[in-house]
Amino acid sequence: MRIAIAQIEVIKGNIEKNLENHLKWIKEAIQNKADMVVFPELSVTGYEPDLAAGLATNQDDTRLDEMQSLSDKNGITIGVGLPTKDESDTFVSMIIFQPHKERITYSKQYLYPPEEPFFKAGKNPLVLKFETEVVSPAICYETSNKAHCEFAKRNKATIYVASVLSSINGINAELKKLSDIAKTNNLITFMANYVGKSGGYECAGRSSVWNEKGKLIGQLGDKEEGLLIFDTKSKEILTAAGAVL
């Protein structure tokens, strides 16, 4: 299985322009025969808690239809970050597009404490089952909660994909934490991060993949957008853009 992580720069609150950029990188992933591509936390709007309630939508938003079309036509699973809402609450969510299936909204279950005035915690734990792998999606602060990884392992996950915003001040701790998750849980682990600015943070890039022993086997740079692809069968790193270690 080929899994891609997209490292992007976002325009604050501009859903239409950000979607254009998502489509560019999804098409790049398709060109590289990826089976799945995942973007950073709240990638469609940027990480903007104070704007999230006004920007929030749901998985059936017609602006997302082209992503579903690309998924259907190319057999690719796509995970993008978006604030979603119900009647009264706003959630930090990942919309998951699968070929010829109903879209899934996975909402962040473990909130970073400063997020609590803006968001409600989700209650829908999830793994995605593929022919050869079981993928556990994680949204940023969830990686700090052992219960999240424990759920993944109970459900026989083989891949852990973290969709994050990590700043230049927090990136080293984030990288160590994810390496430890990979090693402790015997999971191939991915991290998709931003470059540029979002939510008042200077984002650190360095989107990465670790093997099951926690060894870093691929990483993008800290300034440029890029795509990092790992083939779980051949154990090869591929890239469409960005510097790889």
Automatic annotation (TrEMBL):
The residue range of the signal peptide is none
Fetch the CDD domains from UniProt: nitrilase
Pfam families in the cross-refs: CN_hydrolase
The UniProt keywords, alphabetically, are: Acyltransferase, Hydrolase, Lipoprotein, Transferase
- Which domain of life, per UniProt? Bacteria
Could you tell me which residue ranges the CN hydrolase domain spans? 1-234
Looking up InterPro entries in the UniProt record yields: Aliph_Amidase/BUP, C-N_Hydrolase, C-N_Hydrolase_sf
* GO terms for biological process, alphabetical: putrescine biosynthetic process from arginine
Question: Which molecular-function annotations from GO does this UniProt entry contain?
Answer: acyltransferase activity; N-carbamoylputrescine amidase activity
Name it: Nitrilase/cyanide hydratase and apolipoprotein N-acyltransferase
